[in-house]
Each structure stands twice: as C-alpha cells, then as structure tokens.
Specification:
With about 220 residues, the chain is mainly alpha-helical. It folds into 2 domains: about 30 residues; about 170 residues, no CATH class. Helices cover about 85% and strands about 0% of the residues. It has 11 helices and no strands. The N and C termini lie far apart (about 100 Å). About 25% of the residues are buried.
Length: about 220
C-alpha cells in the first residue's frame, strides 16, 4: 500500500508556483490598480466647471438654433443701418438680435457652442477611454479656461472655413439666407464644430486642406 500511495503522490500535479510568476502577477495587479485609480475618477466624476460649461453650451445651442429659425432680423438690421435715431435700449436690442440670430453671425456662435460641447464630451469620456484621454482630462482639470478657450477657437476656425466656402460657392445662402439654407448650414456647422472641439486632430486636418487650397491659388 505504501508503494502505491507513493506512486499516486508522485503523479499528483504540483501546486508550487515559481517565484518569478508570483512576482509578475503581483506587479501586474499593482499596475492595474494604479491605472484604475488614475482613470476611474475622471471617468465617473463630472467636475463642476465641466457641468457648468456643458449646461451653458447646450442651452446656448438650443436658444441660438431656435432663434435662428424663428426670429427674423431684417427689421432690426434696418434699424441699425437706418437714419432714424434710436434710444440706447432699442439700439442694444437691435444689435443683440442681429448678432445672436442673423444667420451669418448665428452659425458662428452655434459652431463655438458645439465645439464647447465636443470638448466637454472629450473631457468626461463618453466614448472609449485611452491614455490620451486621461492626459487630456488631467490637463483640463489644471487649466480649465485654456482647455475650453482652445475649443472655442477651433469652433471659430471651423466657422471661418465653412463660411468662406459658402461665400465662394453659394453667395445667396450667405447674403440672403432662407430657412432651408439655415436648416442645412446650422447642423453642418454643429457637427463640424463638435468634432473640432472633441478631436483637435480633425481641426488640424481641416487647416492642412485649407493650406493646400491657398497654396494652389494663383498669386
């Protein structure tokens, strides 16, 4: 019986784990814990500056888009360019309506608001999370104003590029835009502005294409 027991014991699988493997597993678990500690707070917690920017940008977008459709600015533009004297309140109201809801300026504000929303989306990570997103979020926590200010500038850049194309290829849509034109231009600028705010690489690509077009123009 003792010989058979020895044979069974010798054939049983050994449970000893090499020290190198244990050391590797412990090191891997430590790295995973450190990575999770770095990423999860940014992934789950929405900081109050981001929340304020998101609410203001989203509210501004809806106000601008609805006003661009519903509010006619021709009477107010006539007041500004007319010879009739206006009081301060009337003058300020006319300028406010024109700047906010005239198609040429309205779509610029919409592009900037969309870029802010894209930057908020990149900051809070509503898509997949990678190492670059973590770096972006950590930088945004330290320099919130600079982060969102750059997003606004990218939105304005997209607006300038698209507006230039509209003036070249569709002058009527820019000078005397109709509602159908607005319903085509505003969503386009919203999408372009959002992705320019979300991914600066997209804006860099647009600038590179614009540079090629400018270099191809005859001097």
């Amino acid at each position: 019986m003792s010989d058979s027991a020895d044979i069974v014991e010798s054939n049983a699988p050994t449970t000893d784990v090499p020290e190198e493997r244990l050391e590797f597993e412990n090191s891997f678990d430590a790295d995973a814990t450190e990575t999770a500690a770095t990423m999860l707070p940014s992934e789950k917690e929405l900081q109050w500056p981001d929340l304020v920017v998101a609410v203001l940008a989203l509210g501004a977008w809806f106000v601008l888009f609805a006003g661009g459709i519903l509010i006619g600015t021709a009477p107010f533009r006539s007041q500004i360019g007319g010879s009739a004297p206006l009081g301060f309140a009337e003058h300020a109201k006319a300028w406010y309506v024109v700047l906010a809801f005239w198609t040429v300026t309205n779509i610029g504000l919409i592009a900037c608001a969309s870029a802010l929303l894209g930057a908020v989306g990149r900051r809070v990570g509503f898509t997949t999370v990678d190492a670059e997103d973590v770096v972006v979020r950590q930088a945004a926590q330290k320099q919130v104003g600079l982060y969102y200010g750059c997003a606004i500038m990218r939105g304005f850049g997209v607006y300038s590029l698209i507006l230039a194309g509209i003036f070249v290829f569709a002058q009527d849509a820019a000078s005397e835009p109709e509602q159908l034109h607005y319903l085509s231009i505003a969503p386009l600028l919203s999408i372009a502005g959002f992705y320019a705010g979300y991914d600066p690489v997209l804006f860099s690509g647009l600038l590179a294409r614009a540079k090629k077009l400018l270099n191809a123009l005859p001097i």
